[in-house]
Specification:
The protein is an alpha+beta fold and about 375 residues long. It is built from ten helices and twelve strands. It is globular and about 55 Å long.
Length: about 375
Amino acid sequence: MRSRLAPALVAPALVLGAALPATAAEPRPDTAGATAPASPSAQDIVDALPKSVYTGALIRRDGVGATMGPVVPDAYFRIGSTTKIFTQTVVLQLVAERRIGLDTPVRAYLPTLVPAMYERVTVGRLLDHTSGFPRPARTPGPDDGAGWWLRSVTPTGLLSASFAAAADRSETPPEPGSVQQYNGLNAFALGLIVEKVTGHSFTHELRHRIIRPLGLRHTSLPAADDPTIPSPHARVYVDGDEVTEQSPYPWAEGGMISTAADLDRFLTALFRGRLLPPAQQKLVFAVPHASSATTNTSCADGKACFSIGGLMRYKLPNGQSVWGKTGSRPGWDNGFFATRDLGHRVVYSLNPTGADSGITYIQRILIASLMD
């Protein structure tokens, strides 16, 4: 699932315009000693969103929520690729237990799925998106609106189809570790490795390791044949057609459903080191020394921005880095971000009309929510 932020993270488009309230800033010489403006509240940020771009919105800033349109604060939503952070946290827990090795080749776990030409790709390269795996393949059949994901495709089937399609194109993968290319295929492989080493379903491990210990009572990974979403939830549309109940986005890559409060709790626990021991906690924020395939990721200036823990490093206009993840499904644009010290954090779920890409507004939400 591609990121919902623009290829350049720090650009003139990021300047906070009149559409959102001003954030606190260093006083100018002629206003030295004046009281800095208060940071905008979640309600301020929601109220500034254009209704021509969003039919509904939910923003939770520093634990306080606000909504726009027919959305309630405890609404459920499909979190899309934000699922990857849950997946990678489970993998890092298994690394801590020495059941998965960061430097172990992926083929050691999935020998019949991963071709020999990828024999030097390690688990660590899956985690930081420098595996060089091919893009997920489109497979024949009716598209369900998720692009390359079809109802009949299994995780193993998608990997097999993707490697076969790359072979048909005579693709030569980049050197493992050299280029960061945000790629959902990595998450499918990670989910399959979790199942291989534990002997349990990925869903079981997710519940056992994260959902139940944190008390995330409104978070789940639906079965592949379950298109429903719990109530309350927004009704979402694409091109005039309702897509609220849709075939779930795939599994360990982007299939989860949650709420803003649950995601806030997960984000806080992850940043505070409640889910991982110290050695693996450092990896949550460790970004590889690699170039970025900027046409495929949200990394700026040709530099990698996704960490081994799966978090995106996003630079605010004041130079401060914040960390989080975006995720989208037809009808939903979601994400969560926070400062490293959790001084500020934000969870958002937006329901786009399709009249605008919405990327600029997502960037503005982050700036307004996370800058002092």
